[in-house]
Amino acid sequence: MSSKPLDYENLNENVKKCQYAVRGELYLRASQLQKEGKKIIFTNVGNPHALGQKPLTFPRQVIALCQAPFFLDDPNVGLLFPADAIAKAKHYLSLNSGGLGAYSDSRGIPGIRKEIADFIERRDGYPSDPELIFLTDGASKGIMQILQTLIRGPNDGVLVPVPQYPLYSATISLYGGSLVPYYLEETADWGLDSIDLRESIGQARKNGITVRAMVIINPGNPTGQCLSEQNLRQIIQFCYEENLVLLGDEVYQQNIYQDEHPFISARKVLLDMGPPISKELQLVSFHTVSKGYWGECGQRGGYFEMTNIPPKSVEEIYKVASISLSPNVPAQIFLGLLANPPKPGDVSYEQFARESKGILESLRRRAHMMTDGFNSCKNVVCNFTEGAMYSFPQIQLPPGAIDAAKKAEKAPDVFYCLKLLEATGISTVPGSGFGQKEGVFHLRTTILPPEEDMPSIMASFKKFNDEFMELYE
Protein backbone atom coordinates (compact mmCIF):
# COMPACT_ATOMS: atom_id res chain seq x y z
CA MET A 1 0.00 0.00 0.00
CA SER A 2 1.39 3.43 -0.92
CA SER A 3 2.23 5.86 1.85
CA LYS A 4 -0.49 8.27 2.91
CA PRO A 5 -0.30 12.08 3.28
CA LEU A 6 -0.32 11.98 7.08
CA ASP A 7 2.26 9.21 7.35
CA TYR A 8 5.32 10.52 9.21
CA GLU A 9 7.64 10.56 6.20
CA ASN A 10 5.18 12.77 4.29
CA LEU A 11 4.65 15.43 6.96
CA ASN A 12 5.73 19.06 6.65
CA GLU A 13 9.44 19.09 7.55
CA ASN A 14 9.01 22.37 9.43
CA VAL A 15 6.59 20.63 11.81
CA LYS A 16 9.12 17.87 12.48
CA LYS A 17 11.83 20.44 13.27
CA CYS A 18 9.72 22.06 16.01
CA GLN A 19 10.89 21.34 19.54
CA TYR A 20 9.09 22.58 22.65
CA ALA A 21 11.01 21.52 25.73
CA VAL A 22 8.50 22.83 28.28
CA ARG A 23 6.26 19.90 27.36
CA GLY A 24 9.00 17.63 26.05
CA GLU A 25 10.76 14.48 27.29
CA LEU A 26 10.82 15.47 30.98
CA TYR A 27 7.14 16.40 31.03
CA LEU A 28 6.15 13.15 29.31
CA ARG A 29 8.19 11.10 31.78
CA ALA A 30 6.68 13.04 34.69
CA SER A 31 3.17 12.37 33.38
CA GLN A 32 3.98 8.67 33.09
CA LEU A 33 5.30 8.55 36.67
CA GLN A 34 2.18 10.34 37.88
CA LYS A 35 0.01 7.67 36.23
CA GLU A 36 2.07 5.07 38.10
CA GLY A 37 1.17 6.75 41.38
CA LYS A 38 4.24 8.89 42.08
CA LYS A 39 3.61 12.39 43.46
CA ILE A 40 4.85 14.89 40.87
CA ILE A 41 5.50 18.60 41.44
CA PHE A 42 5.05 20.14 37.98
CA THR A 43 7.37 23.13 38.00
CA ASN A 44 8.06 22.84 34.28
CA VAL A 45 5.50 25.42 33.17
CA GLY A 46 4.29 28.77 34.51
CA ASN A 47 0.79 27.60 35.44
CA PRO A 48 -0.05 29.28 38.78
CA HIS A 49 -3.56 27.91 39.39
CA ALA A 50 -2.42 24.34 38.74
CA LEU A 51 0.01 24.75 41.64
CA GLY A 52 -2.61 26.02 44.04
CA GLN A 53 -2.87 29.77 43.44
CA LYS A 54 -6.44 30.96 44.03
CA PRO A 55 -8.06 33.04 41.28
CA LEU A 56 -8.79 36.68 42.00
CA THR A 57 -12.41 36.95 43.13
CA PHE A 58 -13.65 40.03 41.27
CA PRO A 59 -12.76 38.99 37.68
CA ARG A 60 -14.32 35.57 38.23
CA GLN A 61 -17.51 37.16 39.60
CA VAL A 62 -17.82 39.35 36.51
CA ILE A 63 -17.17 36.44 34.16
CA ALA A 64 -19.66 34.23 36.02
CA LEU A 65 -22.39 36.82 35.46
CA CYS A 66 -21.42 37.27 31.81
CA GLN A 67 -21.50 33.52 31.26
CA ALA A 68 -24.92 33.22 32.94
CA PRO A 69 -26.61 36.57 32.24
CA PHE A 70 -29.98 35.25 33.43
CA PHE A 71 -28.63 35.70 36.99
CA LEU A 72 -28.75 39.44 36.35
CA ASP A 73 -32.55 39.20 36.13
CA ASP A 74 -32.83 37.45 39.49
CA PRO A 75 -34.03 39.87 42.20
CA ASN A 76 -31.61 38.21 44.63
CA VAL A 77 -28.50 38.68 42.49
CA GLY A 78 -27.29 41.47 44.81
CA LEU A 79 -27.12 38.95 47.67
CA LEU A 80 -24.51 36.86 45.84
CA PHE A 81 -22.58 39.40 43.81
CA PRO A 82 -21.26 42.88 44.70
CA ALA A 83 -22.80 45.86 42.94
CA ASP A 84 -19.63 46.76 41.00
CA ALA A 85 -19.33 43.20 39.60
CA ILE A 86 -22.97 43.37 38.48
CA ALA A 87 -22.36 46.75 36.82
CA LYS A 88 -19.20 45.48 35.08
CA ALA A 89 -20.99 42.39 33.77
CA LYS A 90 -23.78 44.53 32.32
CA HIS A 91 -21.16 46.83 30.79
CA TYR A 92 -19.31 44.00 29.02
CA LEU A 93 -22.50 42.28 27.87
CA SER A 94 -23.59 45.56 26.26
CA LEU A 95 -20.36 45.70 24.23
CA ASN A 96 -20.90 42.53 22.18
CA SER A 97 -24.22 41.78 20.54
CA GLY A 98 -25.13 38.24 21.56
CA GLY A 99 -22.93 38.22 24.64
CA LEU A 100 -20.22 35.62 25.21
CA GLY A 101 -21.75 33.16 22.76
CA ALA A 102 -21.30 35.44 19.74
CA TYR A 103 -18.24 36.25 17.63
CA SER A 104 -16.66 39.64 18.16
CA ASP A 105 -14.72 41.84 15.77
CA SER A 106 -11.63 39.94 14.58
CA ARG A 107 -9.41 42.41 16.42
CA GLY A 108 -11.46 42.07 19.59
CA ILE A 109 -14.35 44.04 21.07
CA PRO A 110 -13.78 47.77 20.36
CA GLY A 111 -14.80 48.86 23.88
CA ILE A 112 -12.28 46.50 25.47
CA ARG A 113 -9.56 47.63 23.09
CA LYS A 114 -10.32 51.18 24.26
CA GLU A 115 -9.91 50.08 27.91
CA ILE A 116 -6.54 48.55 27.05
CA ALA A 117 -5.48 51.70 25.20
CA ASP A 118 -6.36 53.73 28.31
CA PHE A 119 -4.34 51.30 30.47
CA ILE A 120 -1.33 51.70 28.18
CA GLU A 121 -1.65 55.50 28.28
CA ARG A 122 -1.73 55.48 32.10
CA ARG A 123 1.31 53.18 32.19
CA ASP A 124 3.46 55.02 29.63
CA GLY A 125 2.20 58.59 29.65
CA TYR A 126 1.46 58.56 25.92
CA PRO A 127 -1.88 58.02 24.11
CA SER A 128 -2.54 54.61 22.53
CA ASP A 129 -4.73 53.94 19.49
CA PRO A 130 -7.32 51.14 20.04
CA GLU A 131 -7.29 50.49 16.26
CA LEU A 132 -3.67 49.33 16.61
CA ILE A 133 -4.47 46.87 19.43
CA PHE A 134 -5.43 43.29 18.52
CA LEU A 135 -6.83 40.88 21.13
CA THR A 136 -5.63 37.29 20.77
CA ASP A 137 -6.08 33.82 22.31
CA GLY A 138 -3.13 34.27 24.66
CA ALA A 139 0.01 36.25 23.91
CA SER A 140 1.45 33.16 22.18
CA LYS A 141 -1.09 33.42 19.34
CA GLY A 142 -0.25 37.07 18.83
CA ILE A 143 3.48 36.34 18.75
CA MET A 144 2.92 33.54 16.26
CA GLN A 145 0.76 35.80 14.09
CA ILE A 146 3.41 38.53 13.91
CA LEU A 147 6.25 36.06 13.25
CA GLN A 148 4.18 34.47 10.47
CA THR A 149 3.71 37.92 8.94
CA LEU A 150 7.43 38.72 9.17
CA ILE A 151 9.04 35.46 8.01
CA ARG A 152 9.04 35.12 4.23
CA GLY A 153 11.40 32.16 3.90
CA PRO A 154 14.50 30.38 5.26
CA ASN A 155 16.76 33.38 4.69
CA ASP A 156 14.73 35.60 7.00
CA GLY A 157 16.09 35.68 10.55
CA VAL A 158 14.88 36.82 13.96
CA LEU A 159 17.24 37.80 16.78
CA VAL A 160 16.17 35.93 19.91
CA PRO A 161 17.76 36.11 23.38
CA VAL A 162 19.47 32.93 24.57
CA PRO A 163 18.41 31.47 26.94
CA GLN A 164 15.04 31.92 25.21
CA TYR A 165 11.46 30.82 25.69
CA PRO A 166 11.04 27.92 23.20
CA LEU A 167 7.86 29.43 21.75
CA TYR A 168 10.23 31.48 19.61
CA SER A 169 12.50 28.68 18.36
CA ALA A 170 9.51 26.42 17.69
CA THR A 171 7.49 29.09 15.86
CA ILE A 172 10.42 30.28 13.77
CA SER A 173 11.06 26.66 12.74
CA LEU A 174 7.37 26.12 12.00
CA TYR A 175 7.28 29.11 9.66
CA GLY A 176 10.53 28.14 7.96
CA GLY A 177 12.67 31.05 9.19
CA SER A 178 16.06 31.21 10.90
CA LEU A 179 16.65 31.87 14.59
CA VAL A 180 19.62 34.19 15.16
CA PRO A 181 20.75 33.86 18.81
CA TYR A 182 22.18 36.65 20.93
CA TYR A 183 23.51 35.53 24.29
CA LEU A 184 22.60 37.08 27.63
CA GLU A 185 25.49 37.34 30.10
CA GLU A 186 24.84 35.23 33.17
CA THR A 187 27.63 36.79 35.25
CA ALA A 188 26.05 40.23 34.69
CA ASP A 189 22.59 39.14 35.97
CA TRP A 190 21.58 38.05 32.46
CA GLY A 191 22.30 41.49 31.04
CA LEU A 192 22.60 42.29 27.35
CA ASP A 193 26.03 42.52 25.72
CA SER A 194 25.78 45.00 22.82
CA ILE A 195 29.07 43.76 21.33
CA ASP A 196 27.73 40.19 21.19
CA LEU A 197 24.50 41.53 19.68
CA ARG A 198 26.38 43.16 16.81
CA GLU A 199 28.51 40.05 16.31
CA SER A 200 25.35 37.91 16.09
CA ILE A 201 23.73 40.04 13.40
CA GLY A 202 27.02 40.35 11.51
CA GLN A 203 27.57 36.59 11.48
CA ALA A 204 23.99 35.98 10.33
CA ARG A 205 24.42 38.36 7.42
CA LYS A 206 27.66 36.65 6.42
CA ASN A 207 25.62 33.45 6.27
CA GLY A 208 23.12 35.06 3.89
CA ILE A 209 20.42 35.69 6.51
CA THR A 210 18.31 38.85 6.32
CA VAL A 211 17.66 39.73 9.95
CA ARG A 212 14.21 41.35 10.17
CA ALA A 213 13.30 41.50 13.85
CA MET A 214 14.63 41.37 17.38
CA VAL A 215 12.84 39.80 20.36
CA ILE A 216 13.20 40.99 23.94
CA ILE A 217 11.57 39.18 26.86
CA ASN A 218 11.19 41.62 29.74
CA PRO A 219 11.01 40.49 32.52
CA GLY A 220 12.99 37.51 31.29
CA ASN A 221 11.84 33.96 30.69
CA PRO A 222 13.59 31.72 31.74
CA THR A 223 16.15 34.10 33.24
CA GLY A 224 14.00 36.39 35.40
CA GLN A 225 15.93 39.64 34.85
CA CYS A 226 14.37 43.10 34.38
CA LEU A 227 15.89 45.24 31.64
CA SER A 228 17.08 48.68 32.69
CA GLU A 229 16.08 51.84 30.87
CA GLN A 230 19.67 52.12 29.62
CA ASN A 231 19.51 48.59 28.21
CA LEU A 232 16.21 49.34 26.48
CA ARG A 233 17.63 52.53 24.95
CA GLN A 234 20.59 50.54 23.60
CA ILE A 235 18.25 47.93 22.13
CA ILE A 236 15.98 50.52 20.52
CA GLN A 237 18.95 52.42 19.06
CA PHE A 238 20.37 49.15 17.72
CA CYS A 239 17.06 48.16 16.08
CA TYR A 240 16.77 51.64 14.57
CA GLU A 241 20.28 51.52 13.11
CA GLU A 242 19.83 47.98 11.79
CA ASN A 243 16.27 48.53 10.49
CA LEU A 244 14.69 45.81 12.65
CA VAL A 245 11.20 45.41 14.07
CA LEU A 246 11.37 45.20 17.87
CA LEU A 247 9.10 42.54 19.40
CA GLY A 248 8.54 43.29 23.09
CA ASP A 249 7.38 40.23 25.03
CA GLU A 250 6.23 41.95 28.24
CA VAL A 251 3.82 39.36 29.62
CA TYR A 252 5.36 39.40 33.13
CA GLN A 253 5.33 43.19 33.54
CA GLN A 254 3.29 43.01 36.78
CA ASN A 255 5.53 40.38 38.40
CA ILE A 256 8.44 42.31 39.94
CA TYR A 257 10.19 41.09 43.11
CA GLN A 258 12.68 43.89 43.85
CA ASP A 259 12.67 47.69 43.84
CA GLU A 260 15.97 48.45 42.08
CA HIS A 261 14.83 47.47 38.55
CA PRO A 262 11.16 48.35 37.99
CA PHE A 263 9.45 47.32 34.77
CA ILE A 264 9.63 49.95 32.01
CA SER A 265 7.87 49.24 28.72
CA ALA A 266 9.81 49.36 25.46
CA ARG A 267 7.09 51.65 24.12
CA LYS A 268 7.61 54.24 26.86
CA VAL A 269 11.38 54.29 26.33
CA LEU A 270 10.91 54.56 22.56
CA LEU A 271 8.50 57.50 22.82
CA ASP A 272 10.68 59.18 25.46
CA MET A 273 13.58 59.13 22.97
CA GLY A 274 11.67 61.47 20.64
CA PRO A 275 11.86 61.96 16.84
CA PRO A 276 13.06 60.71 14.49
CA ILE A 277 13.42 57.34 16.23
CA SER A 278 10.06 57.54 18.08
CA LYS A 279 8.29 58.11 14.76
CA GLU A 280 10.14 55.48 12.74
CA LEU A 281 11.11 52.40 14.78
CA GLN A 282 8.54 49.63 14.35
CA LEU A 283 7.51 48.03 17.64
CA VAL A 284 5.00 45.30 18.53
CA SER A 285 4.34 44.78 22.25
CA PHE A 286 2.63 41.75 23.86
CA HIS A 287 0.76 41.22 27.14
CA THR A 288 -1.61 38.62 28.61
CA VAL A 289 -3.83 37.60 31.54
CA SER A 290 -2.17 34.17 31.60
CA LYS A 291 1.04 35.33 33.22
CA GLY A 292 1.50 38.09 35.74
CA TYR A 293 -0.03 37.56 39.16
CA TRP A 294 -3.51 36.89 37.68
CA GLY A 295 -2.27 33.54 36.39
CA GLU A 296 -5.36 32.91 34.24
CA CYS A 297 -3.53 30.53 31.88
CA GLY A 298 -6.59 28.54 30.88
CA GLN A 299 -8.52 31.63 29.83
CA ARG A 300 -6.11 32.30 26.90
CA GLY A 301 -6.42 36.07 26.76
CA GLY A 302 -3.70 38.26 25.24
CA TYR A 303 -3.15 41.33 23.11
CA PHE A 304 -0.55 43.03 20.99
CA GLU A 305 -0.14 46.74 20.30
CA MET A 306 1.57 48.08 17.18
CA THR A 307 3.66 51.25 17.02
CA ASN A 308 4.75 52.82 13.72
CA ILE A 309 3.32 49.99 11.61
CA PRO A 310 2.01 51.25 8.22
CA PRO A 311 -1.78 51.12 7.65
CA LYS A 312 -1.50 48.68 4.72
CA SER A 313 0.48 46.26 6.89
CA VAL A 314 -2.12 46.58 9.65
CA GLU A 315 -4.77 45.64 7.08
CA GLU A 316 -2.85 42.48 6.17
CA ILE A 317 -2.48 41.53 9.85
CA TYR A 318 -6.23 42.07 10.26
CA LYS A 319 -6.88 39.82 7.27
CA VAL A 320 -4.94 36.97 8.91
CA ALA A 321 -6.74 37.56 12.23
CA SER A 322 -10.11 37.42 10.47
CA ILE A 323 -9.44 33.85 9.28
CA SER A 324 -10.15 32.75 12.87
CA LEU A 325 -13.19 35.09 12.99
CA SER A 326 -12.56 36.29 16.54
CA PRO A 327 -10.54 35.69 19.69
CA ASN A 328 -12.46 33.99 22.49
CA VAL A 329 -14.83 36.47 24.09
CA PRO A 330 -14.59 35.52 27.82
CA ALA A 331 -10.80 36.04 27.61
CA GLN A 332 -11.38 39.46 26.08
CA ILE A 333 -13.41 40.41 29.15
CA PHE A 334 -10.55 39.24 31.38
CA LEU A 335 -8.27 41.59 29.43
CA GLY A 336 -10.70 44.44 29.98
CA LEU A 337 -10.69 43.71 33.71
CA LEU A 338 -6.88 43.52 33.74
CA ALA A 339 -6.76 46.94 32.09
CA ASN A 340 -9.58 48.42 34.18
CA PRO A 341 -9.72 46.71 37.61
CA PRO A 342 -11.62 47.96 40.67
CA LYS A 343 -10.62 51.47 41.77
CA PRO A 344 -10.40 53.00 45.26
CA GLY A 345 -13.92 53.59 46.46
CA ASP A 346 -15.42 50.67 44.54
CA VAL A 347 -17.17 48.00 46.61
CA SER A 348 -14.69 45.30 45.55
CA TYR A 349 -11.52 47.39 45.64
CA GLU A 350 -10.27 46.43 49.09
CA GLN A 351 -10.67 42.69 48.48
CA PHE A 352 -9.10 42.94 45.02
CA ALA A 353 -6.15 44.96 46.35
CA ARG A 354 -5.69 42.59 49.30
CA GLU A 355 -5.71 39.48 47.09
CA SER A 356 -3.35 41.03 44.54
CA LYS A 357 -0.90 42.22 47.18
CA GLY A 358 -0.97 38.83 48.90
CA ILE A 359 -0.05 36.96 45.71
CA LEU A 360 2.76 39.34 44.75
CA GLU A 361 4.27 39.46 48.24
CA SER A 362 4.20 35.66 48.46
CA LEU A 363 5.87 35.37 45.04
CA ARG A 364 8.59 37.79 46.18
CA ARG A 365 9.26 35.64 49.24
CA ARG A 366 9.28 32.47 47.13
CA ALA A 367 11.75 34.05 44.69
CA HIS A 368 14.14 34.61 47.61
CA MET A 369 13.56 31.16 49.09
CA MET A 370 14.27 29.44 45.80
CA THR A 371 17.34 31.50 44.93
CA ASP A 372 18.81 31.02 48.41
CA GLY A 373 17.97 27.31 48.28
CA PHE A 374 19.76 26.78 44.99
CA ASN A 375 22.81 28.76 46.08
CA SER A 376 23.12 26.57 49.20
CA CYS A 377 23.60 23.49 46.99
CA LYS A 378 26.89 22.01 45.90
CA ASN A 379 27.95 23.09 42.36
CA VAL A 380 24.81 25.19 41.84
CA VAL A 381 24.83 28.94 41.15
CA CYS A 382 21.64 30.97 40.68
CA ASN A 383 20.96 34.64 39.94
CA PHE A 384 18.05 36.20 41.83
CA THR A 385 14.68 36.15 40.08
CA GLU A 386 14.03 39.90 39.67
CA GLY A 387 10.74 39.35 37.84
CA ALA A 388 8.56 36.82 35.93
CA MET A 389 8.08 33.45 37.69
CA TYR A 390 11.16 31.29 37.07
CA SER A 391 14.56 30.36 38.46
CA PHE A 392 17.31 29.33 36.04
CA PRO A 393 20.17 27.91 38.14
CA GLN A 394 23.44 26.81 36.59
CA ILE A 395 24.29 23.20 37.45
CA GLN A 396 28.06 22.67 37.37
CA LEU A 397 28.17 19.00 36.44
CA PRO A 398 31.33 17.00 37.20
CA PRO A 399 33.04 15.06 34.37
CA GLY A 400 31.72 11.78 35.77
CA ALA A 401 28.13 12.92 35.35
CA ILE A 402 28.81 14.07 31.79
CA ASP A 403 30.35 10.68 30.98
CA ALA A 404 27.35 8.88 32.52
CA ALA A 405 25.01 11.02 30.43
CA LYS A 406 26.89 10.08 27.25
CA LYS A 407 26.59 6.39 28.10
CA ALA A 408 22.84 6.89 28.65
CA GLU A 409 22.69 8.76 25.32
CA LYS A 410 21.27 11.86 27.02
CA ALA A 411 22.31 15.48 27.06
CA PRO A 412 24.02 16.12 30.43
CA ASP A 413 21.34 18.48 31.75
CA VAL A 414 18.56 16.15 30.55
CA PHE A 415 20.30 13.30 32.41
CA TYR A 416 20.47 15.40 35.59
CA CYS A 417 16.82 16.53 35.36
CA LEU A 418 15.60 12.97 34.75
CA LYS A 419 17.49 11.74 37.81
CA LEU A 420 16.02 14.64 39.81
CA LEU A 421 12.52 13.72 38.64
CA GLU A 422 12.91 10.03 39.47
CA ALA A 423 14.34 10.76 42.94
CA THR A 424 12.14 13.64 44.09
CA GLY A 425 9.14 14.00 41.76
CA ILE A 426 10.24 17.56 40.88
CA SER A 427 9.55 18.09 37.17
CA THR A 428 11.80 20.78 35.65
CA VAL A 429 13.00 21.69 32.16
CA PRO A 430 16.65 21.20 31.10
CA GLY A 431 18.49 24.37 30.14
CA SER A 432 19.24 22.92 26.72
CA GLY A 433 15.54 23.40 25.91
CA PHE A 434 16.08 27.16 26.14
CA GLY A 435 19.58 27.39 24.69
CA GLN A 436 22.78 27.94 26.65
CA LYS A 437 26.49 28.40 26.03
CA GLU A 438 28.50 25.33 25.09
CA GLY A 439 29.58 23.30 28.11
CA VAL A 440 27.30 25.19 30.54
CA PHE A 441 24.23 23.48 32.01
CA HIS A 442 21.06 24.78 33.63
CA LEU A 443 17.53 23.85 34.56
CA ARG A 444 14.41 25.98 34.68
CA THR A 445 11.84 25.75 37.42
CA THR A 446 8.92 27.97 38.32
CA ILE A 447 8.74 29.71 41.71
CA LEU A 448 5.05 28.79 41.86
CA PRO A 449 4.77 25.86 44.30
CA PRO A 450 2.81 26.90 47.42
CA GLU A 451 4.91 28.99 49.81
CA GLU A 452 4.37 26.54 52.67
CA ASP A 453 5.75 23.69 50.50
CA MET A 454 8.82 25.58 49.33
CA PRO A 455 11.15 24.67 52.26
CA SER A 456 10.53 20.94 51.83
CA ILE A 457 10.85 21.15 48.03
CA MET A 458 14.20 22.97 48.28
CA ALA A 459 15.39 20.54 50.98
CA SER A 460 14.47 17.64 48.70
CA PHE A 461 16.32 19.27 45.81
CA LYS A 462 19.41 19.93 47.93
CA LYS A 463 19.53 16.35 49.23
CA PHE A 464 19.29 14.95 45.69
CA ASN A 465 21.78 17.41 44.20
CA ASP A 466 24.47 17.02 46.84
CA GLU A 467 24.24 13.22 46.72
CA PHE A 468 24.36 13.35 42.89
CA MET A 469 27.51 15.49 42.97
CA GLU A 470 29.20 13.19 45.50
CA LEU A 471 28.32 10.13 43.41
CA TYR A 472 29.79 11.49 40.17
CA GLU A 473 32.78 13.33 41.59
TrEMBL record:
Keyword Cell membrane (UniProt): no
Pathway annotation: Photosynthesis; C4 acid pathway
Species in which this protein is naturally found: Datura stramonium
CDD domains found in the cross-reference section: AAT_like (cd00609)
Requisite cofactors: pyridoxal 5'-phosphate
Listed Gene3D superfamilies: 1.10.287.1970, Aspartate Aminotransferase, domain 1, Type I PLP-dependent aspartate aminotransferase-like (Major domain)
Name of this protein: Glutamate--glyoxylate aminotransferase 1
A GO MF term: transaminase activity
Keywords assigned by UniProt, alphabetized: Aminotransferase, Pyridoxal phosphate, Transferase
Residue ranges annotated for the Aminotransferase class I/classII large domain, each copy included: 84-452
Family: Belongs to the class-I pyridoxal-phosphate-dependent aminotransferase family. Alanine aminotransferase subfamily.
Subunit structure: Homodimer.
